[in-house]
Amino acid sequence: MNHKIIVESFNDQAVYSHILHNHCTPRVDIEIIEKSHEWIELGGLSPKALTIKLKDIKSDIYKAEESLKIGIIIDIDNETIESRIALLNEACTAAFDIPINIENTNDFKNYIIQDENNDDFDFNLAYYLAGLNGKGELEHLLKEIADTSSSHHANCLEDGWVKCLEHKKIPINDKQLRKLWMDFYKRLDCLTPREAKQAAENVRWDNFLRLHGDKFDFQRDIQELNEIKSFLNQFCV
Amino acid sequence: MFKTISLENFRCFKNTNISGFSRVNLIGGLNNAGKSALLESIIINIFPFESTVNFINNFRYENNEEIYDTSWDYLFYNGKTNESIKIKLTLENNQTNDIQIKKEEVRQLDDLILYKNFSNTEAFNSTKEDFVRFFNENKVAKSLNFYLEKGDSLLPLSSCTFTEFGTLGQLDPEHRSQAINIGVSYRPSKQPIVMADLIKLYEKSVSNGHLGRIIEALHLIDASIKDIRPLNKKLLLTRDNENFLPIGLFGDAIINILDIALTCFSLPPNSLLIIDEIENGIHHSKHEVLWNFIYKMSLERNIQVISTTHSIEMIEAFNKISLSDPTKNSDFSYIELARTRYNKITGNIIEPEVLEYKILHDKNFRGE
Questions:
Q1: What is the ipTM of this complex?
Q2: Total-model pTM
Q3: Rounded Cα gap, residues B58 and A144, in angstroms
Q4: In terms of CB atoms within 10 Å, which of A95, A144, B116, B354 comes out highest?
Q5: Are strands B332-339 and B24-29 parallel, antiparallel or unpaired?
Q6: What is the pLDDT of residues A224-235, one digit of tens each?
Q7: Torsion angle of the four alpha carbons B107, B112, B118, B121, in this order, in degrees rounded to the nearest 10
Q8: Are strands B184-187 and B153-163 parallel, antiparallel or unpaired?
Q9: Which of B15, B353, B363 lies nearest to residue A117, judging by beta carbons?
Q10: Helix, strand or coil, per DSSP, at residue B74
Q11: Does A56 touch chain B (CB under 8 A)?
Q12: Contact yes or no for B344 and A65 at CB 8 A
């Protein structure tokens, strides 16, 4: 039975999978085993969806030959770290039917549940909250580590397009701008003319990172990036 | 209607509790997961007799009287006959029916657990001499003994003793009256439906005024069927403007549905309908209507349904009906039988929404 990492979307899955498979340091003499963990998309965070997915995992815990590691990665968005942890604790408590009281991110805690036979089944659970400087989402971090030395199309969105809209008093929110920036960056600044012919496929995060993973500096010494790697590293064995 | 079953030392169950049975239950699991054994345990709990063991062994190719002794051993987990089998059902009113089965040695007449009940009966006098002679030769007979656990007491219910010259069955009606008494119909996966039985059920159902409902059941499979009638030890069906033809020509699904419907009509209220491998012979496009029909019957007749399946389509249809109306949720339970890391069988009740997620995302929910 594979370990489980729960993420919010296909895009998140692609990015974390890329980091995991390219930047984790395997423990001594142990190589990363392909598919040694299972990604589960949340499809946009909703506590109900999260609880259903955790209950799905709960039935796997009973069948697993050894204790499972379960990681949950969600964006901080506009919430506080404390409220995000509280949300995850609440969903996990509801799903596993035991009190889950994780206080910090990136900190695995061992829990035990019992089946109807009163046998004990332990599992390890930890959370990671994605963002930059204590807020936001994964894309904030990706933009931070993007190679912007020649990202003219994306940069001109911020320099010109935004100002033009402001002049016309048409509102645009940060999230929309960030999504557009990332799309312009991948589609117009990074894809080769040949790749651009199949842009719809090639800007998908899994395909893009396979083609142009070097356009993001995953080696940068940024606290958030280091923490993600440290979190994912727990799944490298 | 029972809510919980606890099994100890029975067939492949070392020690298993399953809670959360509802009105309509579907059990999924791998081959050899214990699905059929679970059904057998329910039947033995309600009919704690050697004849029940003999009946269920018929479907496991273990019905030869010469191998009574060993076929009894296979009832016990890993052949551990030095420990009791314990099968406990807990009903919704918290009443329990605790049955214990022991394989015990009999070296003298007094070892027969119900000897006092029948020692002076005329029927026993004819075989008593055989037993005495048998024991005088220092031979040991084997008994399969059934007990009802009441508080700290074990009340003998029935017994079957096997010797080289035959078997001796014993029953204690007084103790039996203290155990639960509910109707059960069991259809093992390997049991062919006997036409004579089907006709009897048909006649009983028709005399109780259910002919219209019988046609309704047949319409689940074939809406063009207009009538049904028995003739010359056969059931005949007719479609629009066609001659009556034997039901066997209409395929297995019609016979299976008819059998389920007639059984429901014939069972007394508060009974159990137990069907092993319910999908047998029924096309997947008919699974939803089948579950709807079964649910309707279970409500009308107050029958609890316990069924097993290997079919993903059957599970999917079951879950769709369960999710179709929030008020139905609590009337349906899907139970996954699986082995744990302790090599024990566990019964996971999977909630409808979680099961839906598992089906949609190609997850494991049949014991894998």
A1: 0.86
A2: 0.90
A3: 72
A4: B354
A5: parallel
A6: 999 999 999 888
A7: -20
A8: unpaired
A9: B15
A10: coil
A11: yes
A12: no
